[in-house]
Amino acid sequence: MRKAIGSIALVAWLLAYVGVAAVVGDRIASEHWVWKLLYFPIVGLSWVLPLKPLLRWMHAKDGPRESPDV
Q1: Mean pLDDT, to the nearest integer, of 45-49?
Q2: What pTM does this model have?
Q3: Which of 2, 10, 13, 26 is the most exposed place for a label (fewest CB within 10 A)?
Q4: Domain residue limits at 32
Q5: In a domain? residue 68
Q6: pLDDT at 15
Q7: Residue 43 CB-density burial (10 A; 0-12 exposed, 13-18 middle, 19+ buried)
């Protein structure tokens, strides 16, 4: 169940991130080339940092379950 919820959250995050990055990138396109040189590599790599906790949670093992005394 974790992987299904995590996958939906991951896709939602990526869609939002790409949308914002595209809008800001469009505004940066008319700026000096130094701003583009700084912006695009940073944005291209920084999307993964907020996903680290989500990915860690998605791939975590469940703890041992207690068996009921029967």
Answers
A1: 90
A2: 0.73
A3: 26
A4: 2-57
A5: no
A6: 96
A7: middle
Given a contact cutoff of 8 angstroms between Cβ atoms, the answer to whether 9 and 54 are in contact is: yes
Task: Kindly state whether residue 20 falls inside one of the protein's structural domains.
Answer: yes
Identify the pLDDT of residue 70. 62
Per the domain annotation, does 13 fall within a domain? yes
Residue 60 pLDDT level (bands cut at 50, 70, 90): confident
Is residue 43 in a domain?
yes
Structure tokens at 7: 């996958």
Neighbour-count burial for 26-42, b at 16+ CB within 10 Å, e otherwise: eebeeeeeeeeeebeee
Query: What pLDDT score does 9 carry?
Result: 94
